[in-house]
Structures are given as C-alpha cells and as structure tokens.
Amino acid sequence: MRHLHLIALTAPLALAACGAPSASITPFIASVGIDGDLGVGDGAGTSVASSFNDLGLDDNEAVVGGLVRLNFAGAELSISGYGVDFEGTGTATGNFEYQGSVISAGTNVASDIQLDTARALFTWDIIPLDGLDLGLGFGATLLDLDFRLQEIGGAGTLIESEELIPVPLLAARAAWTWGPVALRADAGGIVVEYDESEASIFDIGISASVDLFGVGDLVVGYKTMKIDAEYTDDDAQIDTDLDLSGYYMGARFSF
Questions:
Q1: Backbone angles phi, psi at 13, to 5 degrees
Q2: Rounded distance, CA 110 to CA 227, Å?
C-alpha cells in the first residue's frame, strides 16, 4: 500500500527515540467519508468546482491504518498513516480543463480520488500532573493526492493528476487517565505557501481506550481532517477542499 511507503518516509524521525523507555503500536480500521469539492482550470481563469457528492463520491470507505507512539524523557513521538480510495459515478457541475482536455459541466463522469496520508508529531510535556498529560510541539503531514475523472460515453475524455504535498504542523495533545480508562485528544494544523501553491490542514482526533485484561487496550475514536490545497500541475490550476471524517476502532499494544 502506498500509505505504508509514506510512513516509511517519516520513520527516520524515530531515530531520535532510540533510548525510548516505552512505546506502543495501534493498528486500526476506520469508516471514512469525504466532503468538499474539486476544481481544475487551464490557468486562464478560476474554475467552477464540483462537489464530491455531485461527482458520485458520497459513500464511506473502509480503511486500515496504524499508529506508533514512542515516549521518552517527557516527550512523545507519534507516527501514523492510512490510505483511502473513493470511487463513483456522477455529473460534473463545472468545467474541468487540463492540458487541452475538457470535461464540460453537465457531463456524466466516472470519478476516483485516492489520498494517502502519513503524519509525524513530536510534542513535549508542559504540565507534569498525575493522570493528566498535556503537550505542545510540531510535526509534518505528507499528503499523496491522486484524482481521475473520465467522461462516460462521448469521447471518453480523461483528466488525471497526482501531487505530493508536504505540510508542516503545529501540534497539541491532551490525555487523562482514570483507572483502566484513558481519554485523549490530538490536534495539528497550519496554513503554508510553497512553490506558488498554498495548502492548509487541520487534523483533530479524539479517542477513548480501556485495558483488556492486561493484554492490550481497546481503542475507539473519531477523526476529522480538513485539507484545502491550491496548486499547479503542468500549468493547470487545481483547487481542492477535502473534508475527511469517520470513526475508528483498534487495539493498542504497549511494550
């Protein structure tokens, strides 16, 4: 899976934690839905975006991901990632123009959007209280965004693009433990400009876990990610507003 390769790109950060006194790994499954819109223009003007719902991408998808946390000397390094692929058929409500190819508004299309994301966060404890854990820090998210639109019938016009977007993050975490139950919230976000492009990302997750007879922990949670990216691909202007959200469940194993 491509998202596993993205996680590998962030793995060198873990070298800073070679002497980590504790670590955990959490494989999880999730049901993720997409909202937002996509616009593609030839650079001559602003395109009219089509919503993902109109493009037929309105079903939740099952995804598999993973999370690794390393804790050492009052700090935490977390590395996570997953990939999701949305497919469907719908109707373009705005013109899509790319490298001379045009899919006009009102055209039925087969749509496919793939997003792989890997995130690394490094945070430090700021309030060392018993049972309460608060931290601030920084990190980065790496987004691999591919989309493919093909006209149904007619000339079968195909428009597709792939972009790799690195986004630095400011991060915060909060956790509270009460007996076998632990509650946690993680947040990261920033707005950044690079190479005449702009991207913003806000990534928030909340979870609850309970000890499973000393074997591990059952983890359930909710995650939402908002991505707003404007970039050029071969002189085409691409503007996408992605909202991904869904519930997940996993098992955490500590050592």
A1: -60, -25
A2: 23
pLDDT tens, position by position, 116-134: 999 999 999 987 677 788 9
pTM of the model: 0.83
Q: Give tens-digit pLDDT for 208-252.
A: 999 988 889 999 999 999 989 888 877 788 888 999 999 999 999
CA-to-CA distance for 82 and 91, rounded, in angstroms?
Answer: 28
Q: Which two tokens stand for residue 31?
A: 């049901």
DSSP the chain: -HHHHHHHHHGGGGGGGTT-SEEEEEEEEEEEEEEEEEEEE-SSSPPPPEETTTTT--S-EEEEEEEEEEEETTEEEEEEEEEEEEEEEEE-SS-EEETTEEE-TT-EEEEEEEEEEEEEEEEEEEEEETTEEEEEEEEEEEEEEEEEEEESSTT--EEEEEEEEEEEEEEEEEEEEETTEEEEEEEEEEEEEETTEEEEEEEEEEEEEEEETTTEEEEEEEEEEEEEEEEEETTEEEEEEEEEEEEEEEEEEE-
Contact 70, 14 (CB under 8 A): yes
Q: How many angstroms from the chain centroid is the CA of residue 154?
A: 35
Give the rounded percent of residues in the chain with a pLDDT score beyond 70. Answer: 88
CB 246 within 8 A of CB 223: yes
Residue found by looking up tokens 């939402």 in the block = 224
Cβ neighbors of 11 (< 8 A, separation 6 or more) are 79
What integer best gives the mean pLDDT of the chain?
87
